[in-house]
Specification:
The protein has one helix and twelve strands; from the N terminus they run E-E-E-E-E-E-H-E-E-E-E-E-E. With 311 residues, it is mostly beta strands. A hairpin with a 2-residue loop joins strand 3 and strand 4. The longest helix is centred in the middle third of the chain and has 7 residues, at 155-161.
């Protein structure tokens, strides 16, 4: 089940602009947690079945409704309606989502724990947690031409430089969380494939590189496999991929041709600065590609030019 609560204030500035600030919260209980159950109660040597609750039954996948989540967010919105050739909207969200059930490893919507008898050790950021998100969009009619603030005075020149409009949108947000995994069952509990490595950095940020590349996005040497018969010390969802940043801009103008006929020119540029946003790196420490990135979260810069006759 889910619970929701919120509180907000709104204030108008002048005739065109409204500022809104909201606190939004929610909580969910009895979420599904997929897992491999009837594994050994504790890590150790020997046959793991002898340390399981029911030694005569093999470990089995199934769901348990023990998950829970909490979400808290501050939302800020600055909205200016179109007036005097300008409209814009600034939206910022600062949030945190923590749970024990948002990232399934075994093919269900849920979460699989490295120790199914201690779910609390996996309480961490949700798989969809994005702490910071900023979006700015605008529409601006350049103040050039007849009837505008700056009028060239020359009719031909006014028809060339007047009535241009510039639209744009900027999006900045935190990167996605991701997990690291250890192949096999170093803890020898029978819970194969769901273990995490150790972290041996002196400080938490040591794993981040000053100049990450696709071939080595983070310092993989700081994440060794745990010692035999132990669980990994690395937490769940404590690493983040590259943050997202993008700017799209469009410029267009309509030229009168004859009577009701008009010619519209439009130029659209996507990912104007050609930023590269790396995807999630390979997280299996047993893979030869551990720490490498094979994809991006955005596309390369694109420019589109178009002419349209309106009649």
């Amino acid at each position: 089940y889910s619970m929701q609560w919120n509180f907000g204030v709104q204030h108008q500035i002048g005739q065109d602009t409204v500022v809104t600030a909201n606190y939004v919260g929610s909580g969910s209980r009895r979420l599904q947690i997929g897992g491999y159950y009837n594994v050994a109660l504790t890590p150790g040597p020997g046959d793991p079945r002898q340390r399981s609750p029911f030694p005569y039954i093999a470990p089995t996948f199934y769901d348990r409704s023990w998950g829970r989540s909490n979400y808290h967010a501050f939302q800020f919105l600055l909205d200016r309606k179109f007036g005097k050739g300008l409209a814009y909207m600034v939206s910022y969200t600062w949030s945190k989502s923590i749970d024990i059930a948002s990232s399934g490893w075994y093919g269900v919507e849920g979460h699989s724990s490295q120790d199914p008898y201690n779910f609390n050790q996996d309480r961490s950021a949700s798989g969809f947690d994005v702490p910071h998100m900023l979006s700015v969009n605008w529409l601006y009619q350049l103040p050039l031409g007849p009837g505008k603030r700056f009028n060239p005075g020359n009719r031909v020149l006014a028809n060339i430089v007047g009535n241009w409009q510039v639209n744009g949108i900027v999006v900045l947000r935190s990167g996605q969380v991701f997990n690291l995994s250890v192949p096999g069952d170093t803890a020898n509990t029978g819970n194969t494939g769901y273990l995490r490595p150790d972290y041996i950095g002196k400080n938490w940020g040591d794993w981040q590189l000053d100049n990450p590349t696709r071939q080595k996005w983070f310092d993989t040497s700081l994440f060794p496999a745990p010692a035999a018969f132990t669980f990994g010390t690395l937490g769940r969802h404590v690493l983040r991929a590259d943050g997202y940043k993008n700017l799209d801009v469009s410029i267009f103008r309509q030229f009168p041709v004859w009577e009701k006929r008009r010619l519209e020119f439009r130029a659209e540029m996507f990912n104007v600065f050609n930023n590269v946003v790396y995807g999630i790196p390979v997280g299996n420490i047993g893979s030869a590609d551990f720490g490498k990135v094979f994809g991006t979260e955005n596309r390369a810069r694109q420019v589109q030019l178009a002419l349209k006759i309106i009649f």
